[in-house]
Amino acid sequence: MMASSYNAKEEDGHHSGTSSHGAAGAVKSKKPDNTAFKQQRLPAWQPILTAGTVLPAFFVIGLIFIPIGIGLFVSSNNIKEFQIDYTGVDISSPCYSCAKNFSWNSTTPCVCSVPFTLNQSFESNVFMYYGLSNFYQNHRRYVKSRDDSQLNGDRSALTNPSKECEPYRTSDGLPIAPCGAIANSLFNDTLELYHIDSNGTSNPIPLAKKGIAWWTDKHVKFRNPGGNNNLSVAFHGTNKPVNWRNPVYELDPSDPENNGFINEDFIVWMRTAALAHLPQALSHHPEEAQHDPHPTQWQILVDHHLQLPCAQL
């Protein structure tokens, strides 16, 4: 009959007596150290949830969020929105002829006038958006079809764009700037807003093209290639996207702070939408509008360039 005794050191891989000398090597134990952290003996507090503690906390949190919700609801209701569809699908639409007969690569402009009436006053700031329906910017290959290094002004990426831009990486043997499918499909319809006074005279409304993009996009993610203040020289050796009429350095030649890669219309377009309905900021009217309680007549002139089948303002 044999008897054995338990030895903690033996469990840790340390054998007592002569057995430790006879073994080929000590077996290292995987037992955790006898500490409060590794043995899960740290002091802890576990609340006991009862109706007397849960219900008061629930009502207090609810009372805190009620005024927040009311403020958000009132703020949302104060936002005024007016939509104009200039798709031109209906034969009675003023843009019907442009929608049916216009070709995206045509050099002859196709302009249509869309009159509308505002029954309530729109005070500043008034933002103008354009919208596209059933345009899936969230497609995986479309989202990846860009070169962020090139858009950040990197000279090497300017002349050697990423392969993710294929098939819009090169054109006529020259690198495309900006490359990729997102930039190639840039929304480029031109919209002009006019106010029709009581005499029937059309008065143009100035629309600011700046202040519509995210600050981080404008000042961090998008930069023009350095080395030359003349953008035509800075972009020398590159070609415009296939579907563009003008090169990137002619997006807004009248304003150097809104031209090239830092053009805010271009920056807004490059921030792809998550859903099939695509609303994007186009411009805004920063001046204080005069309050007029009577219906006012307005007009939008649309210069069609976009080859997409469905465009909605």
UniProtKB/TrEMBL annotation:
Protein name: Uncharacterized protein
Origin species: Larimichthys crocea
